[in-house]
Specification:
Rossmann fold, five-stranded parallel sheet, alpha/beta, 2 domains, 11% strand, single chain, Methyltransferase, Methionine Synthase (B12-binding Domains), Chain A, domain 1
Length: 219
């Protein structure tokens, strides 16, 4: 196993062990080794968090486990954030406003926050509503901020259905045509996005930025 893969695996295991100290240590180790913070987050911390989310959905774990894992990931991401923010600092700014949140019923926010950081780095104005956001509040945010896109994250199959409600309520409010909808999260797929009528499916933070920049260029 390469040094990079070893560190990424340690990042994943730190989350699975609910160990914030270990997460901080592996993040520092990654920076010293010159490993991409994006890779450490997406292939390490996020994969660990996804495993925890899957086990929570199967009722093999409980809410305290999810919170503990999230706190471990937060500790690691905090160490990596300055390096993330330095990435792409010279890129074009003023690409437009994007509203993001974790969908109603979903308390997970780390992946969504990473997407927000990467979007800011790329030059978007990001309105991060937070986690467990009621659909009506998402619609109100779209009315208020008139964003280029609105993105919702779901880490559990039980909360994905609320992404359908976003599509429906935006239509009911008469503002669906004026905004692009983006969906993401561990159980979310391109097939799901197509099924509910979302404009964009983002597999990860980098993918979200690439797809949104393409939309911004056409806007």
């Amino acid at each position: 196993m390469s040094k990079a893969n070893e560190i990424i695996e340690k990042a994943k295991n730190a989350v699975l062990a609910y160990d914030a100290d270990a997460a901080e240590e592996v993040a520092q180790e990654a920076l010293k080794a010159g490993i991409s913070p994006v890779d450490v987050i997406q292939l390490g911390f996020t994969k660990g968090m996804t495993d925890v989310g899957d086990r929570f959905a199967k009722k093999e774990l409980y809410l305290p486990h999810v919170i503990a894992a999230s706190e471990a990931m937060t500790a690691g991401v905090k160490v990596l954030t300055p390096a993330l923010e330095k990435m792409g600092g010279s890129q074009e700014k003023g690409l437009g406003t994007v509203v993001i949140c974790s969908i109603e019923g979903d308390i997970h926010c780390i992946g969504k926050d990473i997407v927000g950081i990467m979007m800011k780095v790329a030059g978007f104005n990001v309105i991060n509503l937070g986690r467990d956001i009621p659909v009506k509040d998402i619609v109100e945010a779209v009315k208020t901020h008139k964003p280029l896109a609105v993105g919702t994250s779901a880490l559990m199959t039980s909360t994905m259905v609320n992404q359908i409600a976003v599509e429906d309520m935006l239509k009911e409010a008469g503002i669906r045509k004026g905004v692009k909808t983006m969906v993401g999260g561990a159980p979310v797929t391109q097939q799901w996005a197509d099924q509910i009528g979302a404009d964009i499916y983002a597999e990860n933070a980098q993918d979200a930025v690439i797809r949104l920049k393409a939309v911004a260029e056409k806007h």
